[in-house]
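@channel sequence for tomorrow's demo:
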Amino acid sequence: MQIDNQDIFDEIRPLDETAEDQEIIDLAGYQVTKAELFAHTREPAITVWADRIKFNMACLRRFPSVTHIQLLIHPEQRRLIIRPCDPDAPDSLRWANGVGEKERRNRDMRCHIFAAKLFDLMQWDRQIL
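structure tokens (generated this afternoon):
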């Protein structure tokens, strides 16, 4: 089925409409959305899916030369933190690909079992995925 754009968009009106021609919208009942509720690319963040996790580039920039980390979890406080470590440290995880600032990039870290345990620990709803 093909949808004609005319069916879903109003006709574009010229910018020189007079105030009489413009529709006035009553803003009563609307609320301004707080900007703090949206992700900012410069703030460290982790994305967790049902089978993988990924740290954003802001995380990697906080630790410029770190390629491996350990994940530490506090079950009572329900916190997850990262700790830089050597590649040969026990339970080390490679969280970055490439060498040097320009070549470095974040990577998907496959972890089906860990993600399931994290969802349980944090009491997150898996149906939201």
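heads up for whoever presents: Strands lie at 46-48, 52-55, 68-74, 79-84, 93-94, 96-97, 105-106, 109-110.
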